Amino acid sequence: MLKPFALILSALLLAMTSYVQASTTEAAEAAALAWLEAIDQGEYEQAWEKSSPLLKTPLSPTMLQRVVTLARNDLGSVESRRRIRMSQYTSMPGAPRNDYKEFAFKTQFTNNQRVVEVVTPHLEEGTWRVSGYYVQ
């Protein structure tokens, strides 16, 4: 009698773990996409406010605008964006141990159809905040 109960309990725990991981990934991706949307709209102050102190400390909103403008120089406006990869880490170079998710998005801009943007949010006091961004 204990064996079937243990199997059912194990299956339930596994299902709950998968659900929590999926909802955590969805929340992290939503934070990354909201940050990118602010950048796309030229709302650098808003993007900066949504950022982690890991990004805010070295960059003012004006500096963030300059860095992003240089990275996206001559790309044009965003036409589409889709996630192509998600990686999960517990540490990143030069950053404290935490829960980090790195999302790679294939982004089509008007002047370049083959751009990959990488956004890294991390969990900070229960909220996902972007701490890194670069264009490949």
Automatic annotation (TrEMBL):
<dbReference type="Pfam" id="PF13211">
    <property type="entry name" value="DUF4019"/>
</dbReference>
<protein>
    <recommendedName>
        <fullName>DUF4019 domain-containing protein</fullName>
    </recommendedName>
</protein>
<feature type="signal peptide">
    <location>
        <begin position="1"/>
        <end position="22"/>
    </location>
</feature>
<keyword id="KW-0732">Signal</keyword>
<dbReference type="InterPro" id="IPR025091">
    <property type="entry name" value="DUF4019"/>
</dbReference>
